[in-house]
Design a protein that fits this description.
Strand order of the largest sheet: 1-2-5-3-4
Shape: elongated
CATH superfamily of the largest domain: OmpA-like domain
CATH topology of the largest domain: 60s Ribosomal Protein L30, Chain: A
CATH architecture of the largest domain: 2-Layer Sandwich
Radius of gyration: 24 Å
Number of strands: 5
Structural class: alpha+beta
Number of domains: 2
Largest sheet: 5 strands, mixed
Number of helices: 6
Strand content: 5-15%
């Protein structure tokens, strides 16, 4: 089955077309104000319903794409990079699961429960020791590589932490990791952050709470 993503601009064009058709219909309604108001209210209600439907379709398509991308990354991790021994240099670091990717990249899966307390974006002491070890390997073995730091959360709704969405929480956590690595000598211009919130879950909520560091080839 093929999945088509409907962009926000396409949604707006569809709504604009619907509005144009309704406007053409209103021209033939004469000058009866009550009739025009009733038709405009009907148009507004229909457009709102259509907009809600299109947004739902867009969100569903984006979620499907995220799952497919995660599945691809998992397959790449299982295959491993051709011609490599499998050693990454990050073996033995607490809370870190390192895998080779096809093409020579490396993905680090860093446990969120080691990095942060629940709902927080301040690094724990254990996190600093883990990130110190990661920074040391990055500088000694992966100098000049581009790093993408991704924040991932579980699917529990935000209630007490003050963050509006899990996506914002994930972004702040990724930023906290990036800033700490900068303080340890990793060049700022070699890193960027991304947040996926709960859109790429693992098998459990605990495993879903994580920061992933993708090292380019």
């Amino acid at each position: 089955m093929r999945t088509f993503l409907l962009s926000p601009s396409a949604s707006r064009r569809a709504l604009a077309l619907a509005g144009g058709l309704m406007a053409s219909f209103l021209v033939g309604c004469g000058d009866d104000p009550k009739q025009r108001v009733a038709l405009l209210e009907q148009e507004n209600q229909e457009l709102r319903g259509r907009n809600s439907q299109l947004e739902s379709q867009l969100n569903e398509a984006n979620a499907q794409r995220a799952l497919l991308e995660d599945e691809r990354a998992n397959l790449e991790s299982r295959l491993g990079a051709p011609g490599t021994s499998g050693a990454t240099g990050f073996e033995g670091i607490e809370g870190v699961d390192a895998t080779n990717l096809v093409g020579g990249g490396v993905k680090l899966n860093v446990s969120g429960d080691i990095l942060f307390d629940s709902g927080r974006v301040t690094l724990r002491n254990e996190a600093k020791r883990t990130l110190d070890s990661i920074a040391s390997v990055l500088k000694s073995q992966y100098g000049g590589r581009m790093l993408r730091i991704e924040g991932h959360t579980d699917s529990d709704p935000i209630r007490k932490s003050g963050w509006k969405t899990n996506e914002r929480l994930g972004a702040e956590r990724a930023l906290a990791v990036e800033e700490y690595l900068i303080s340890k000598g990793i060049p700022n211009d070699s890193m960027y952050i991304a947040s996926f919130g709960p859109s790429r879950p693992k098998g459990t909520k605990k495993d879903s709470r994580r920061v992933e560091i993708l090292i380019g080839n």
